């Protein structure tokens, strides 16, 4: 109803993704799939507390429903002196090493972006890491650029594959005859366990991602 009437509503989606101690009834892994089917909304997830402030500020300057996902837990918080308006559907890009060209592209969102960057530097992997902070709409201009680059692309997400970011990107990549590697949750309900334990059981831990990227590089 809020989308149909273009109401300026900001919705916080608490406990997005795997939730660990909250148990199997609270795994927030399906919202991307069902919200992506609703017209005229924005769905986003910040990578850190600084970006969260800008996305929240941006949401209150829109005339449409604006959904912000955030995971269970706490992060360091420093108030921003100047808040910025972020255009819907725009992603940002980071490199593991400023003085080296990236060999591969990894697309992720939320806190995983910085975790991937930190771990890749430890592993001496030269990556371009895309912060896909908008899950609806997607940054199709940037995706097109990466599809045409010819570099290996891996989508990493800790949410449901069905209807999720990885599935949407694979659908777009088919127009460019590109094969996109994905690491996402397997189909089915997720049992209780710590987030790291669940990632290992689902074979989507950072160790799994690094091994996959090393295979691509070899």
Brief digest:
With 218 residues, the chain is α/β, with parallel strands linked by helices. The chain has seven helices and nine strands, in the order βαβαβββαββαβαβαα.
> Runs with pLDDT <50, length 5+?
none
Q: Kindly identify the CATH topology of the domain at 92-217.
A: Rossmann fold
CATH architecture of the domain at 92-217: 3-Layer(aba) Sandwich
Name the beta content range.
15-25%
Major sheet attributes: 5 strands, mixed
The CATH C-level name of the domain at 92-217 is Alpha Beta
Number of strands: 9
N-to-C terminal Cα separation, in Å?
50 Å
Number of contiguous helices: 7
Helix content: 25-40%
The strands making up the biggest β-sheet line up spatially as 4-6-5-8-9
Overall outline = globular
Listing every helix as H and every strand as E from the N terminus to the C terminus, the arrangement reads: EHEHEEEHEEHEHEHH
Radius of gyration: 17 Å
Going by helix content, strand content and strand pairing, the class is alpha/beta
Average of per-residue pLDDT values: 93
Features:
Rossmann fold; alpha/beta; 218 residues
Structure write-up:
By secondary structure, this protein is an alpha/beta fold. It has a domain at 92-217: 3-Layer(aba) Sandwich (Rossmann fold). It contains seven helices and nine strands. β2, α2 and β3 (66-69) form a beta-alpha-beta unit. The longest helix is centred in the C-terminal third of the chain and has 12 residues, at 206-217. The mean pLDDT is 93.
